[in-house]
Amino acid sequence: MARRLTRATTIAAGALGASAAFVVGLALTGIASPVGERALNRVHRRGPYRATPRAAELHRSLTVVDLHADSLLWGRDLRRRASYGHLDIPRLVDGGVALVGLSAATQVPLGANMDRNDERPDLVTLLALSQRWPRATWGSRLARALHLAFRLREMAAESAGRLTLIETRHDLEVYLARRSTDPSITAAFLSVEGAQALDGDVASIDILAAAGFRMIAPNHLLDTVYGGSAHGAVKGGLSEVGRELLSRTESAGVLVDLAHASSATIDDVLALAARPVVASHTGVRAAVPGIRNLPDDQVRAIAATGGLVGIGFWPVACGGDDVRAIARSVVRALELAGIDHIAIGSDFDGAVSTPFDASGMPLLTEALLAEGLSDADIGAVMGGNAVRLLTAALPA
User: Fold this and answer.
1) Cα–Cα dist 89/66, whole Å
2) pTM here?
3) Would you give the DSSP letter of residue 223?
4) What distance in Å separates the CA atoms of residue 66 and residue 55, rounded to the nearest whole number?
5) Domain residues of the chain, as ranges?
6) Does domain 43-118+133-393 correspond to CATH entry 1.10.3720.10?
7) In a 3-state reduction of DSSP, which class is residue 158?
8) pLDDT tens column, 259-303
9) pLDDT tens sequence across 217-226
10) Within a 10 A sphere around the Cβ of 264, how many other Cβ atoms?
């Protein structure tokens, strides 16, 4: 074990430069450990959580869908309950979550911020080394995405039926019928956070689609050759190869996710999109100003495609560190887009702090009731809209 870790440190030092020995040491002993994840994926109040009887009863009747979480990145066995982080199968079941979008982030710059990032040492490289991912993942971001997809399949296969991977419309229909009589199960679909995962070849979208990925974001925290990120150095629009990516993505039956895209890229995608698009985990500037969040016109334009805006759970997105802030952001988004086009996208385990972990989802139902939403509207936001979109968008 020690020899393998020393070799990993040496390899990363050669790839990342003079400060790599310190950075890799931090990753091997800190970032990828429970202590490191506790620091990065914080919860303001740990469970158990108790909603009011009225909210708990309503919540049990809902089909809750969370459009985005990054839990695959940290190497935890999601079949087992953890005392840290935000999400695993037991906590999804406790929170009544029927379906979650699990994302593969393949490049995250160390020291990333919301304003401007450029190429720098990469956290995912360090995680790949520290968690002993296959050698191919050390240099290939496509291999990283495929590895995380394999890990999810492995966990689903070994979950004794508690976790189902959703790839097709048929999968979703069969699973939802099963869950209607058995709320002790949950499901996931795969997404890609950042088109760096294509390794520079738009044809790789077909490889990702074949591996089960059903959503892709052209950007994460960096600009790519396909278009600008809201957090990039240039923040430009969709490039020519980005237009090709959009076309191939739609042809492959994969949804486009604009959660981290620059304003120019969002406008370009919306002008060209022939299918619904989503912003899986974001906020709206009507509730919380800031470059990370969507202005009114883009919220309405995403709705006009038939798509969804998923409201995030962390302060930059929702404006506070309690569940009431999330609910208030949902209400503001509904005023812009209408009831059919707002969803939730927690960003659980995305190096963010949230008011609760996945087991606390009934608290959001309670907060939406307190904001005056009807049972039907809460059902739409908490998952009904997402189920409708996925039923239409997934391959038959």
Assistant:
1) 13
2) 0.92
3) -
4) 18
5) 43-118+133-393
6) no
7) coil
8) 999 999 999 999 999 999 999 999 999 999 999 999 999 999 999
9) 999 999 899 9
10) 16
